[in-house]
Amino acid sequence: MLEVSRGSLAAFERRLATIPADLCAPFHEEARQLEAELLTVYRVVVQCTKREEDLERVSKWWETMVRVCDEFAVRLVKLAEAHPACGAEQYYDRVLELRSKCLRLQKMHN
Questions:
Q1: What are 5-44's pLDDT values in tens digits?
Q2: DSSP string covering the chain, please?
Q3: How far apart are CA 94 and CA 109, in angstroms?
Q4: pTM greater than the 0.85 cutoff
Q5: Which residue among 17, 59, 73, 92 is least enclosed by CB atoms within 10 Å?
């Protein structure tokens, strides 16, 4: 799962490098794409945990998802630094909300 998310993040960074700092429309497009990819990973983890009977393994799935959220959050911070006038905070906040949810699920299954 981490490798899949890292591939998405690498592609995101390549696309980000081509966006001029003064243009917000392409910035928002990339941020929305990144968020959609994170939600796709989340949905896969949800499906995996539904089929898993071992609570320790369920907890590990959620732990992995917390790490994925952390990696996406780091990329969004970089995006916000490169495009400070474009408002990355809204995307960052949603990633942190999802991270909190995954952490809560991890602890619940521990």
A1: 666 677 777 777 777 778 888 888 888 888 999 999 999 9
A2: -HHHHHHHHHHHHHHHTTS-TT-SHHHHHHHHHHHHHHHHHHHHHHHHHHH---HHHHHHHHHHHHHHHHHHHHHHHHHHHHSGGG-THHHHHHHHHHHHHHHHHHHHT-
A3: 23
A4: no
A5: 17
